[in-house]
């Protein structure tokens, strides 16, 4: 439930009373520096966790009000950020594309209409819309039929040339290829749901008597489904597209209904089948085959679909840590600035933006953070977080970040189950990041004195389960930070609630479908 201003005010009053009732502090503690020293003492205690003994930990905390560095350890060391990379991509996109930016998908005609016959090709042209659904392609097909067209003598041409032909990001792991969070990037794509998981479908299994029934969302015959699953006493099923193919193999046992999100191998080809099927449904027959090519110059527009504006897309993008959105926005920036919808062109835009705004050390290999060669320093992240506060688009950026303890998925996002019942709940706005051996949390928090802080927490190369509870403890301590009434905090009493999981594993919780944040 979203907090009302009244409940927030009540929460602030409770926090104020709690601080007022804390043990009296010595006169020397009235020195603002004492509060900073106590903060450093507590963060050092948190980072002394045995799980980090063999790991790398970089942490920076700064006042957003005056830039004062309140805490730093390994501030200038390059570390793997995982999805903290999206902080840079989102900021560059807001600056470069603008919050009103929309993706357009068009149906064009390269021929002449005679009666109900279109002599020539029908062209479907995309610009990368990650929010377009099968039903939107169906509406485009209905619009074509609404023009009185019943027969197309030429081909159905899929124009995905707004972006280049590189489908997978730099350095992405081969074993992520079939995972929906690493789906191929194309200027023509489709999402199966309103999380807007572009480039994927949902494969569903359910027990139907003695057999296992399989269905997909949307309905499609694009894949070859090989169903070897059996009905059993429990659901222990694997649904996976075979590497380099369109074959989805289903094995294991099924007792209860189960869904799996599966990346398509070629989004352009997949979308073409959806659109051709919808055309047929609406009585439009395309006589020629489906091909891929650029729309001819002068092709006439028959129908158009526009996405939501970027300021709305920011919510599913950042709250749910959507990798495909990050990569599409990266290529869209490259297309706008350099006329090239490529990773290299788009990453230059993001890097140039960061450097122009005071970020000193940055190595971006993709827009999402899936690459293990992405590298930032904790200082670099706080430099970015501080700089963008002055941007006119900052409110949309800030509100797109996951909010600790807010249970609504599109408010709390990947932090909705973390830090509940603590001073950080409803306060911390931050981006999470998770890969095997990598966890990060960076963003904004307001101290107990009302001072705005920026922070970056980057933990790498641990061998335990993801120590997200360490991030949470630091964030909670920052929410408790006071210059005027400092005291070393009892870290046990400020620990995250038991609903703050440290066992989501090696991936962002929103990537574990159904969403488990």
TrEMBL record:
A Pfam match: Peptidase_S13
Source superkingdom: Bacteria
The protein's name: D-alanyl-D-alanine carboxypeptidase/D-alanyl-D-alanine-endopeptidase (Penicillin-binding protein 4)
Keyword Protease: yes
Similarity-based family: Belongs to the peptidase S13 family.
Xref: InterPro entries: Beta-lactam/transpept-like, Peptidase_S13
Signal sequence coordinates: 1-20
Biased composition (Low complexity): 493-503
Enzyme category, top tier: hydrolase
GO molecular function, one term: serine-type D-Ala-D-Ala carboxypeptidase activity
EC number: 3.4.16.4, 3.4.21.-
Annotated region described as Disordered, given as residue ranges: 485-517
Keyword Protease: yes
UniProt keyword annotations, A-Z: Carboxypeptidase, Hydrolase, Protease, Signal
GO biological processes: peptidoglycan metabolic process; proteolysis
